[in-house]
Amino acid sequence: QVQLAESGGGLVQPGGSLRLSCAASRSIPSIYSMGWYRQAPGKQRELVSMITNDGSTNYADAVKGRFTISRDNAKNTVYLQMDSLKPEDTAVYYCNFQSFSAINYWGKGTLVTVSS
Predict the structure, then answer these.
(1) Residues contacting 19, CB < 8 A, separation 6+
(2) pLDDT per residue as tens, the chain (116 positions)
């Protein structure tokens, strides 16, 4: 059973930065994409950013220009650099790996709180 483990969440002031990491417990064959989702209290889970195996990226409009996703295939790890954080970025952030056969792997989430 593959497990994904997120790290890097915490409390940060508005305008601050955090870097999230997500590593798989073992190599996963045929990974198509790695991504980050978030779920704020009382809201549905939403896609924040995704990076595919060819390096293509996409971002939610709300985070464009502030967040940067990257991946290290050798380490089965995906990162999310979050800058200029806003209170509305407060959420539990989940990483997701999706295989070419559409199998989804999810982490348990890491809490990001943006507050003064």
Answers:
(1) 8, 79, 80, 81, 82
(2) 889 999 999 999 999 999 999 999 988 878 899 999 999 999 999 999 999 999 999 999 999 999 999 999 888 999 999 999 999 999 999 999 999 998 999 999 999 999 99
